[in-house]
Amino acid sequence: NWRDGTLSFDESRRRIAEASQWLAGGVSSNFRLGISPTPLVLDHGDGAYLFDADGNRLIDYYLGMGPMILGHTPQDVRTAVEAQLAKGILFGGQSAIEAEAARLVCEMVPCAERIRFNSSGSEAVQTALRLARAATGRRVVVKFEGHYHGWFDNILWSTTPPADATGPVPGSRGQILDNGIDIAVLPWNDLAVLRERLAQGDVAMVIMEAAMCNQGAIHPLPGYLEGVREACTKTGTILVFDEVITGFRVSPGGIQKRLGVTPDLATFAKAIANGFPVAAIAGRADLMELMANGVMHGGTYNGQAVAMAATVATLRRLQDPATFAALETRGTRLMQGIQAAFDRAGIVATVTGFPEIFHVAIGLTEPARNWAELRRMDRPRYIAFTTALLRHGVRALERGAWFLSTEHDDAVIDATLDAVGRAVQEI
Ligand code: PMP
After folding, report:
1. pLDDT tens column, 60-93
2. Cys-Cys crosslink for 38: which of 13, 101, 242, 335, Cβ 3.0 to 4.6 Å?
3. Looking at the domain covering 10-73+321-425, what would its CATH class be?
4. For residues 406 and 323, is the Cβ–Cβ distance under 8 A?
C-alpha cells in the first residue's frame, strides 16, 4: 500500500504515548518531537531501509540525522566493532585504534594538523569556543542567522530567528541570557557586514556552517568563503567551520576540501563514525596544542575504543574513491529527479545542496542566500510533502535536508522518485 500512500503509523503513535509515561515527551531529543504524523518507533534497519513498529519498510533519508553515510548495516563497520568489543570497550587511557583514527582524520582533512575526539558535535563546538578565546584573549563570537552549533547556552542563539529580530534570539527557555552579550549574530553570505564587525577588534572567532545544511541547504556565494578567510586572517580572528554535517559527507575532506577554503579549526561528528557517538575538533597545531597548555578539554568517553574502531572502518571506506563517485552520481540523479517532479506538477520549488545532502525549498524560485530568504519557503506545504512521502514509504526530514548513503542504489532512487511523483500530486 505504499503506492496508494496509505501506510499507517498507528502502532508508533500508540508506543510513543505509552513511552511518554517514562520518557519526557516520548523522545530523547527535541528534534524528534512534534514530527508529522507522529514520531516513529523504529525496529531495525537494513542498508537504505528502516522498519518501524507498524511493520512498514521505509526508504530512509534521515540516516540518523546524517551519520549513516554507509547505510544502516555496513558489514565492514560491524566486523571492526565486533572485533573491538571482544578486546575491550573503554580503557580510560590511549589505544592504537584511537591514534589510527586521529591519523586518518589528519590525512583527510586539510586544516587538521592535530585533532581531539569527544562524543557529540555540541561538545566539539565548546572546545572551539574555549580554544579561540584562549588564543586571542577576546570574548565575542560571531555566528550567523539560521546556523546551528549545538544546544548549549553560549551558542544556541538565532537558529530560527523571526524576520523582525533586532538582536540575538535565545533558542530555549531556561537559557542564560547573559551569554547573549558575547554573541554577535550576522546575516550569512554578506562580506561587508562581517568585515565591519571584525574591524571592532573584539571578536575571538567566527563560526559557520560553510554551506548551511542544518535546515535547508545554502551555498556560499562565489568568493564569500575566501573573503571571510582573508578578513579573519587580517584581524587575527579564529575561523571555525562547523563541519558536523558536511564533514566526511560532501567530500572525504569535508566542505573545506570540496570548496578549497581552509579554516583554523573545524568541528566534526555524524558521518565520521557511521552512527557511533564520535565527534572531533581539528585544526592548526599551535591552537590545538593549547590543550596541553592550560586549556581544559575532558570527557570520559572521548576516544572510546569501540567508537574508534567504527571511525577507522568508516573513514577507510570514505577514502575509497568509489564511495564518493557512487554518492555523487546517484545523488545528482535524485536531486534532478525531484526538481523535475515539482516542475511537472507546476509547483515552484528549488533543489539545492550537494548530492550527499540536499534540500527542496518549496515556494522559492531561486536558491536562498541566507536564513532571511530561506525562511520565506512554504514550510506547511513542505511538511505536507514529507508527510505524504512517509505514507508512500519514504522518510525525509520535515525540518532539514535529505541525507544520502552508499546503500541508496539505483533501484532505491527509482522507488524514491516514484513516491515523490505521487506525493507532489497530493500537496
Ligand atoms: N553543528 C551542526 C552543524 C549540527 O548540525 C549539529 C547537530 N545537528 C551540531 C553542531 C550538534 O551536534 P550534536 O547533536 O552531535 O551535539
Report:
1. 999 999 999 999 999 999 999 999 999 999 999 9
2. 13
3. alpha beta
4. yes
pLDDT tens, residue by residue, 219-231: 999 999 999 999 9
CA 364 to chain centre: 22
- Ligand 1 touching residue 228 (CB < 6 A): no
Given 61, 148, 224, 382, the catalytic residue? 148
Residue type, 43: D
From the CA of 169, how far away is ligand 1's center (Å)?
A: 18
358-364: which pairs have CB atoms within 8 A and are 24 or more residues apart? 358/217, 358/331, 358/334, 358/401, 358/402, 359/213, 359/216, 359/217, 359/400, 359/401, 359/402, 360/385, 360/402, 361/216
> For residue 104, what is its C-alpha cell?
586518518
Nearest CA to ligand 1 atom 8: 214
Distance 242 CA to ligand 1 centre (A): 8
Bridge partners, 333 (sequence order): none
269 lines ligand 1 (CB under 6 A): yes
Distance (angstroms) between ligand 1 centre and the Cα of 149 equals 6
Residue whose entry in the numeric block shows the C-alpha cell 587511557: 93
What is the domain class of 75-319 according to CATH?
A: alpha beta
Identify the band that residue 396 occupies on the pLDDT scale cut at 50, 70 and 90.
Answer: very high
Give the DSSP H/E element, type plus range, for residue 93.
none
Which position among 52, 60, 182, 242 bears the catalytic label? Answer: 242
Report the alpha-carbon distance of residue 361 to residue 79 in Å, rounded: 39
Q: What is the pLDDT of residue 1?
A: 79
Taking the C-alpha atoms of residue 138 and residue 201, their distance in angstroms, rounded to an integer, is 8
Cell (9 digits) for 248:
566526511
* Ligand 1: nearest atom to the Cα of 123: 16
Establish whether 270 is a catalytic residue: yes
Question: Domain limits of the chain?
Answer: 10-73+321-425, 75-319
Confidence at residue 128, expressed as pLDDT on a 0 to 100 scale: 98
Does 249 contact ligand 1 (Cβ within 6 A)? no
CA nearest ligand 1 atom 12, residue: 121
Atom of ligand 1 nearest to the CA of 65: 8
Rounded to whole angstroms, how far apart are CA atoms 330 and 338?
12
